[in-house]
Amino acid sequence: MRKINLANFKSVTGETAREINSRVVLDLIRIHQPVSRADLARRSGLQRSTVSLIVDQLLADNWVTEGPPRKSPRGRKPTSLHLNADRAGIIGVDLRPGTTRIVLAKLDTSFIVKASVPTEGTASGFTAQLTNRICSLIASHPEINFEGIGVSLPGRIDGRSHKLVFAPNLPWPTLDLKHPLEQAAGLPVGLENAANACALAEIWCNRRADSVRHLVTVTVSEGIGAGIILDGQVVYGATGMAGEFGHVSLDERGPRCNCGNSGCWEMFASNKAAVRYYEELAFPADARGRSSTPITFDHLLEFTARGDAHAGRALDRMAHYLGVGMAMVVSSLSPDLITVVGSVTAAWDRVGPIIHEVVRHRCPALACPRILPTDPATEPRLRGAVALMLQKHFYAPRLF
User: Fold this and answer.
1) CATH of range 14-83; options 3.10.310.10, 1.10.3210.10, 1.10.10.10, 3.40.1160.10
2) Would the CA dihedral through 295, 301, 302, 306 be positive or negative?
3) pTM to 2 decimals?
4) One digit per residue, pLDDT tens: the chain, 400 residues?
5) Which CATH superfamily is domain 89-200+381-394 in?
6) Residue burial 156-170, b: 16+ Cβ < 10 Å; e: rest
């Protein structure tokens, strides 16, 4: 049972019901296109006359287009309905250490243009550079009606100030992107933690999550984050910091983390942890023979594929600690599905079995969820940023 928050709720009116029904029909068209009016009535449970009124309005508002009639064994040939992906454009931003990527996307989250800027300099200097690049992108496409700007961030956002306030792997203690971007571009800006954005992309773009109500997405890169969806809702907590499993200490005697604690999960299971393991194995003690070129996680994956024993052992150790942390997630939240986002998924045939075995061993009394890799080609951080601006049109309005 979900308790109604009597301190913050909206009364349900006839207009609210119409809005919810319209969003239900629009989302069904998005998911099941091409689809007929009769199909929509069966899937939604709404009267055919109600569906026809909603579809007529969606057609008038240019949200939906009609295709040619489909073949039918008898009777009138049904008309196919499609989401009008060209109705508006959305800017998606994936801010990460090193490089910030930008895309212009359609309503179906397909990308039209990609760009990038370096993530460097002062907070104000970076904000100005990003703002200029986005404004240039908008100006170069005057034919597009822009819906808004969604931003995926490697940290947590304060719900009141809308500032990035916790990002241990970025050089800035705080970052205000929302207000400068909105002022310069004249568009609404939505900010989201990267792990939450990836979880949103999973339920927005991936059919394997259609029936999943309890999902955790674990992002593995310079750090580790967790996006939590329980009962179909993103979990933020009182301060917006829910999901920071990457900064739960596994060993207080472990390596010092950028967050100020020691032995955090990400210090044992992130990309930088795997590189550290490799360097300790390949260049022990005095580090003689160490390469002058910095070793990256991509190098580690290449070395492993070529049969480098040290690289393989480093990756196995990383996988073990990924399993240790995921067991913590399973015991805490009992999700139906855990999805993993990051370059480590390229070696899933090796790391996946290790992760599953550790979780199974550490959670013997619990039903272990599916743990699946996310294809990097789907660009979950960017698609999640785009979906952040789309969901207001497709998801039910928040009443309480």
Assistant:
1) 1.10.10.10
2) positive
3) 0.85
4) 556 556 665 666 777 788 888 888 998 998 888 999 999 999 989 999 999 999 999 999 999 999 877 665 565 677 899 999 999 999 999 999 899 999 999 998 999 999 999 999 999 999 999 999 999 999 999 999 999 999 999 888 887 888 888 888 888 888 899 999 999 999 999 999 999 999 989 888 876 666 788 999 999 998 999 999 998 888 888 877 888 899 999 999 999 998 889 999 999 999 999 999 999 998 876 554 555 678 999 999 999 999 999 999 999 999 999 999 999 999 999 999 999 999 999 999 999 999 999 999 999 877 789 999 999 888 999 999 999 998 877 765 554 4
5) ATPase, nucleotide binding domain (3.30.420.40)
6) bbeeeebebbbbbbb
Exposed e or buried b for every residue in 320-347, given b needs 16+ CB within 10 A?
A: bbbbbbbbbbbeebebebbbbbbbbbbb
- Rounded to whole angstroms, the Cα distance separating 347 from 336 reads 23
